[in-house]
Amino acid sequence: MFNLPPPDILLQLSLNGALGGAMYGVAAVGLSLIFGTMRLIFLAQGAMIILAAYFVRALFYGLGIDSFLSLLIVVPVGLGVGWLLYQGLFRRAAAEADRNVSLLIAVGLMFLVQNLMTVVWGGNTAAVVTSYTATGIELFGVRTSFTRSMGFLIALAGTGLVVLFLRRTIIGKAVRAASEDMDAATLMGISPHRVNAIAFAIGISLAGAAGVAVATTFPFNPFAGFIFSLKALVALALGGIGNVGGALAGGILLGLIEAYVQFFISGGWTNAIAYGVFLLVLMFKPEGLFSRPYKKA
Amino acid sequence: MSQALKWIAIVVVAALALLPFVPGAVDAYYFSFLFFVFLYAIMAQSWNLVAGYGGQISLGSHAFFGLGAYTTAILWTGNYLWGSLYDSHPGIYYFDPVTMALGGLVAALAAVIIGLPLLSKLRGDYFALGTLGFGEIVKVLFVNGGDFTGSAFGIVAPASSFDTLRPHYWVALGLMVATALAIRALMRSRYGLALIAVRDDEMAASANGIDVLKVKVAAFAGSAFIAGVAGSLYTYYIFHVGPDSVFDLDWMLLPLMMTVVGGTGTLLGPILGALVMYAVFDLARIVVPDYHPVISGLTIILAMLFLPKGLTRLGVMQRLKSA
């Protein structure tokens, strides 16, 4: 059927796919946290990532702050913005039994952010071009871009920190408990609003981290976010909803699938095949590909 | 519905039906405005059937809308239906009931094909995600459809007889009223009761002998049929059916928003929501053209913060209903 290409090209494909997919992964980790506690499909995540990318660009061209250093600003700002978004927009809706309400607030937020960006920065494609944008480095004997590798590291570090937070801190434990059973967690004295707000804050700060990776690697425009949200959802489903490490792995897997489909079939089919895999996983392995089977009590 | 509300509805529909006879009305701005309100109200009813009454949140309405639009454009440009009659009557495909019904049927068929596996396996949010994925797949299929679907550009329908918006207006109004009446009748039937029962408690419904999967798939297919007919109607208005226009996510998001603002699971909610929301959007487009999507976003957020149960559940409406 296919003529298998030489191994170095395969390796190149896999590496680029995995590095690109890690960005879906970090977006998916944020979605996973928010979905876990609020059962909300936060469709505005992609728009928040692009907003962060514009912010990084403004810091670079306006104040001359290096884009990777701006992580130190973007991530704390993301935490604050996430907290405020929850308190201002989602707090009341979270108490509502009808979850369409929160979904629609997310959609409204997406419209709002996308179009505010268009008003402020224009609808054209923007990019951050630094001295190292075109620099390549050698990994496993294959040349790849420096910024992509940095994006991968950011994704790994971000996910690692979230996993540590969930496993090692008492607040993290509360978030995990709330994701498993909000009612039982509330009975144990965990405040749902606090847990939701924390999940939101971390989710948006991860969007900030993803924004840094996007800004340094790809050209972007105000409307590029939605496709990112969709890809993050696919990554989330591949990894298993509620499984943070799985979400990153799901993103990397999605990046690999896209890279292979693009190479072996055609660029036009990438999305159809990615969503096809998504549907199959949802139907036949809804707990995700990377979760250990467990028995429900 | 109370007697008072029934009479108000009859008078309003009659007035709307007679509007095109008012001199100058056809060329007025509000004429095309009303056409779009009717179109969105039909789409909102479609979403309300499966999500509001059925409790299955579908995020794939735009796929069914697009399927209906493409079916109409393909049947028309390829002249697959009427053969030589088309040569003697060039306007035969125009608002042709058979073509429009086929648009709905293709969408309903797709809904059954995708609905059987999705609805038997997936619940709640997973079903919503699945329909979202389905919508994207359908779009890619049409982009890659070669000459049959016109690829990324789409299809331009032969526009021989478009010189007035009057037929569009009447057909849209008629379809909106027909959809509302059909759903009203449906929800009063055994089937409607079963649908509500499944929404409220699947387990209890199943224990009472309701075939849950059959009821859900039927609601999904019915919703898709309505969306497909709406897509067909849109083809007669826009003529250029392309993947980015008819599979646009707005065809799912706006009706969803209109239904929730109007009131999910109510008959008048989708219509009221379509009128109010489209008025807000269009007003913003005219008054502040540069900022209008910003205003739209703000409106959705504000509506959800302060009116989460929808307009029809406001006190005024409740009093009218009981009058």
SSE inventory with pairings:
The complex is a heterodimer of chains A (297) and B (323).
Chain A: H1 7-38, H2 45-63, H3 71-94, H4 100-121, E1 136-139, E2 142-145, H5 146-168, H6 170-180, H7 182-187, H8 192-217, H9 225-239, H10 244-264, H11 270-284
Antiparallel strand pairs in A: 1-2
Chain B: H1 3-18, H2 29-53, H3 61-78, H4 85-88, H5 97-121, H6 124-143, E1 155-156, H7 166-188, H8 190-200, H9 202-207, H10 212-238, E2 240-241, H11 243-246, H12 250-262, H13 269-287, H14 292-306, H15 315-322
Antiparallel strand pairs in B: 1-2
Helix pairs in contact in B: 2-7, 2-10, 2-12, 2-13, 3-5, 3-6, 3-10, 3-12, 5-6, 5-10, 7-8, 7-10, 8-10, 12-13, 13-14
Mean pLDDT across every amino acid position of chain A? 84
- How many beta strands in the DSSP annotation of chain B? 2
- Supply the helix-strand structural class of chain A: mainly alpha
What's the alpha carbon Rg of chain A, rounded to whole Å?
Answer: 19 Å
Principal-axes shape call of chain A: globular
Biggest interface reads: A-B, 43 and 40 residues
Task: Summarize this structure as a short list of keywords or feature phrases.
heterodimer, A: 297 residues, mainly alpha, two-stranded antiparallel ribbon, 11 helices, 2 strands, B: 323 residues, two-stranded antiparallel sheet, 15 helices, 72% helix
Report on the architecture of this protein.
The complex is a heterodimer of chains A (297) and B (323). Chain A contains eleven helices and two strands, in the order ααααββααααααα. With 297 residues, chain A is an all-alpha fold. A two-stranded antiparallel ribbon of chain A has the order 1-2. The radius of gyration of chain A is 19 Å and the shape is globular. The model of chain A has no long low-confidence stretch (mean pLDDT 84). Chain B has 323 residues and is an all-alpha fold. Chain B contains 15 helices and two strands. Chain B is globular and about 55 Å long. The interface between A and B is large, with 43 and 40 residues.
